[in-house]
Amino acid sequence: MKLTRERIVDAGMAVFAEVGYHHLSMRQVADRLDTHAGSLYYHVRGKDELLALMADRVCRQAYDAGTEALAALPPAADWPDRIHAQAAGLRRSIGQHPGGARLLAESPGMLSTGALSLMERLLGTLVDAGLPADDCGIAADTLLSHITGFVLQEQNGPAAPPPVTAEVHAELCERFPLLMGPTFPRLSQDEKFTRSIRLLCAGFATLARPPAAGS
């Protein structure tokens, strides 16, 4: 089968899922394709470019997922609904790839139409919400950082709680009544994610300017 950039990215994603960000090598990718490492360099300049192409693929998938989610919203959906649709699409797309959050967080800087498309649409939604232009970039960066960090924690998996005696548990409840008490919500990951995006949007809404008269 002809060696192409798309096939190299496919192999890179498969190797990445097995060995992670720092251990991926062009030789491993070549072995996956049953070819020599030197053959890859006709299509991809090196590991940094391959990682960037892999991250771009995840971003393009996230953009498409966001497009579908936005199309499914009712006509009366408000801008926080549109933000959440895009955020949920990105979360799902990153989560489909083992180590996907680390890939986006650590991939080398490279012009990526996938990432730029995600950012452009988020910015457009925030501008439509009435946020000042000089705050929109920070708001969009905050959203993307939060989503990536949230999925990174999910992909790392929850740490097993240390065993404690009833006496130690009672002491912890006394020292940390808000955290350990019954009023602190125990939420599913989906509910936690939805609420976190809503909280961010509520903060952004305090910056929104009302539309000008006659607009």
From TrEMBL:
A Pfam family that the UniProt record links to this protein: TetR_N
DNA-binding region: 25-44
SUPFAM superfamilies per UniProt: Homeodomain-like (SSF46689), Tetracyclin repressor-like, C-terminal domain (SSF48498)
Keywords: DNA-binding, Transcription, Transcription regulation
UniProt domain HTH tetR-type: residue ranges: 2-62
Signal sequence bounds: none
InterPro entries for this protein: Homeodomain-like_sf (IPR009057), HTH-type_TetR-like_transc_reg (IPR050109), HTH_TetR (IPR001647), Repressor_TetR_C (IPR004111), Tet_transcr_reg_TetR-rel_C_sf (IPR036271)
Alphabetized PROSITE patterns for the sequence: HTH_TETR_2 (PS50977)
Top-rank taxon, per record: Bacteria
Name under which the protein is recorded: AcrR family transcriptional regulator
Native source organism of the sequence: Kitasatospora paracochleata
